[in-house]
Structures are given as C-alpha cells and as structure tokens.
Specification:
The chain has about 400 residues and is α/β, with parallel strands linked by helices. It folds into two domains: about 250 residues, P-loop containing nucleotide triphosphate hydrolases (Rossmann fold, 3-Layer(aba) Sandwich), CATH 3.40.50.300; about 140 residues, Coagulation Factor XIII, Chain A, domain 1, CATH 2.70.50. The protein is built from ten helices and 17 strands. The longest helix has 16 residues. It is elongated, with a radius of gyration of 29 Å. This is ABC-type polysaccharide/polyol phosphate transport system, ATPase component.
C-alpha cells in the first residue's frame, strides 16, 4: 500500500470569465474564434504530497483556491491540467447542503450518503445508530432536512462524514457552525480518527485550530502554493502576512545568516568620511542590519548599527533600539544611556552591535527601530523607523507575544 494518501502534480483550474452573459454565446458561435472572455486561474500549477495519517491544515484568504482544491480532490470538480492521485476512501464535509437532498428526511439522507460512498444498505444499517447518537437532533432525524436549522444540518452532516470509516477526511469550515459542546465533540472524534491513522485535510479561518490540531500546513494565495511546512510555523507566517501584506516580503530579507556574515566581512571599513552633510546635521545612521531575518524563540538576535559623526565630539551621545509589533505596540526599547554603556561619540565612522542572547518573543512579525540621541535621549539626532523587520516562527509551545518564565502548582 502506498504511503502517499494524496499526490498533486502541476494542478491548475481555469475558469473563463465574461463581462456579459451574451459574450459567452458570441464566443461559442464565433467563426473567427474570437475570444470574448478572459481566463482566471483558481489554481495555478500547484504540487504537493500528503502522507497517510497526516493532519494537514490548508490556509488562505477567501478566493485563494482552498475550496476549489478540495472539490478537485473529492472529484466534485475536474482540473484543467495536471494530475491528482488519491489513495483511499474519502469522506468530505465541504459545505452545508453538499450531498444532501433537502426533500429527504435525516434518516434517508444517511442512507443516501452511504450509497454514494459505496456502502450497501445493510452495511449502513449498523452505522445509523452511531450517526444518530452523534448528531443528537432528536425527532428531527425523521423530518425533511429542508426544515433544519444550520446548526442541526451541520450536526447531521458531520455525524455522517466521520462515522463511515473514511481513510481520508476533508473538513471545510464545518466547525464554524454549531455550539461549543458540539465543536468539542467534533474535535474529539477527529482526534480519534487521527490516532487511528486517518488522513485529515482541515480548512478553517480560525488559525489557532490549525496550529493546535494539524501537524502540517499548506498556505495558498491567489491559487498558488506559498509555502508548505509545520503547521505552527506556517500559521505564524500566514498571520504575519495578513497583518503586513506585501510589506512582509519586502521588509524581510531572504538571505541566510551565513550570507549576511559574509557581506559584513567583505565590507571595507573606513574611518575617513567623504560625504559630510550640511544643514547642521551632527550625525546620522548609515546602516542597520541583523544577523538574520528569521528566528525561533530564544535565538540569538544581533542588530548591527553603523553611524557617522560629523562633529569633533557629541557630549551625551547614546544609541537606542526598539522592538515593535506590526501594530506598533511597543515591546522593549533599551538605550546605551540607561544601560550605562559608553559608545563612540567622536568624529568618524563607527559600528555598534546590539545583542539579545535569547530573544523571548513568540511567533509573529516584528519591526526594529534604531535612533541616535544626546542629552539623555531628549534630543533626537537621527531615527530610523522599521529599520529592520524580523519574522519569528516556532513549533506550538505557548501563546501570546512573549515567553515568560513560569510554573504551576496545584493547591487543592
């Protein structure tokens, strides 16, 4: 038996979009084959593998292609190009109403869904009672599902999907419907399936659910796979992107720590200043770099600040470094005056390194401000807002913004 549950190779799904309904007819009847529509890629050349027993969270904004991908995997849609291989019996909860006849009763829809999955009526009979118990909708099980509330519908649909012994379970935003007690029951059942080796694809806009439940994450944006990796790390990157958008890509350097160090070593340091600004400028920051742009919590962070001083000497000169969240919440901001550190304050070019041996921030994107001042920080000489941006990602081990040493004691 193959270890691969789902294999997707160069998969694309293209839709033709038309400005007016008549344009579709004109194109179909055109002798010259004139094109009246335009192509829209719901999915564009995506590839990935999912192993048996993996629990995979799929992340992306509305319209990113998540639901299209799931429908292709389940066979509801056919791809425009590419290959897909599915090894195992699939049970899918894609959207409310999918696979149910609104005129049928709950019981009748249980048998209908079982038939579509290949079970005989006799095989379904032994599954009906567990499904009814899980759905827990009482006498409504004998009523047409068109009379159900959305919560009741979700209960029955989920009960059917997880009680037919699937080898692959696909859940698309289904847990957003229903009360807390029902959601708890669903997650407990999914954990049971997970422990029994069922492959699970899980789509949810509640990223904390993906982080806590899934082992792997796939981030899709505008029909393309952005990144695949550990669920917690992918969630951290996705949430940072949702806050910063394209700023995340432009603000975080893709070069490695080793490349950064090579660049630093190759730079020729000169004490002589060739370009002295006028207008009474005393000094300026010429460069701010970090030892890396991507970190784990407790990694060593180094910020290298290069600056030039144009006066013979600046009394009370100090350097400050500040760490901010993407929303500009101030996390920490020491300076050399408060820390009683003497830094070069005479004419020339200088370099100072700010070091955090074990950075305590948890997952997310953070920005670093750097400023030079005098007079105990009252007078700002030069200031660089968001001089560098860093990304912190981790395996799921804590929540919030900072890790604080702590312990627990049971007192009763």
């Amino acid at each position: 038996m193959s270890e691969i549950a789902i294999k997707v190779e160069n998969l694309s799904k293209i839709y033709k979009l038309y400005d007016k309904p008549m344009d579709r007819l004109k194109e179909s009847l055109s002798i010259s084959k004139k094109k009246y529509g335009r192509e829209h890629y719901a999915l564009k050349d995506i590839s990935f593998e999912i192993k048996r027993g993996e629990t995979v969270g799929i992340l992306g904004t509305n319209g990113s292609g998540k639901s299209t991908l799931l429908k292709i995997i389940t066979g509801v849609l056919t791809p425009s190009s590419g290959n897909i291989e599915v090894n195992g019996k699939i049970s899918a909860l894609l959207e409310l109403g999918a696979g149910f006849n609104p005129e049928y009763t709950g019981i009748e829809n249980i048998y209908l869904n079982g038939t579509m999955m290949g079970y005989t009526r006799e095989e379904m009979q032994q599954r009906v009672q567990p499904i009814m118990d899980f759905a827990d909708i009482g006498e409504f099980i004998n009523q047409p599902v068109k009379t159900y509330s959305s919560g009741m519908f979700a209960r029955l649909a989920f009960a059917v999907a997880i009680n037919v012994e699937p080898e692959i379970l696909i859940v698309d935003e289904a847990l957003s419907v229903g009360d807390t007690r029902f959601q708890t029951k669903c997650i407990d059942k999914m954990k049971q399936l997970k422990d029994n080796g069922t492959t699970i694809l899980f789509v949810s806009h509640a990223t904390e659910q993906v982080k806590r439940f899934c082992t792997k994450g796939i981030w899709i944006n505008k029909g393309e796979v952005v990144e695949i990796g550990g669920s917690s790390e992918i969630v951290d990157k996705y949430e940072a992107y949702m806050l910063l958008g394209e700023k995340l890509n432009t603000g975080i350097s893709m070069q490695s720590e080793e490349e950064t160090k090579k660049e630093e070593l190759s730079q020729v340091e000169e004490d002589k200043i060739t370009d002295i600004p006028g207008n009474g400028i005393l000094a300026r920051i010429t460069s701010v770099t970090c030892n890396s742009s991507k970190f784990k919590t407790f990694d060593n962070l180094e910020v290298i600040i290069e600056y030039e001083i144009y006066d013979d000497r600046i009394p009370g000169f100090l350097i400050g470094v500040a760490l901010y969240t993407p929303n500009r919440d101030y996390i920490f901001g020491p300076n050399t005056y408060l820390d009683k550190i003497v830094v070069p304050n005479k004419y020339g070019r200088h370099k100072v390194k700010y070091i955090v041996p074990s950075i305590p921030v948890l997952g997310g994107s953070y920005s670093i401000d750097v400023g030079i001042f005098n007079n105990e920080g009252i007078v700002c000489i030069d200031y660089k807002t968001e001089a560098q941006r860093i990304l912190v990602t981790n395996e799921y081990f804590s929540e919030g913004r900072l890790f604080i040493e702590h312990k627990w004691e049971v007192v009763k």
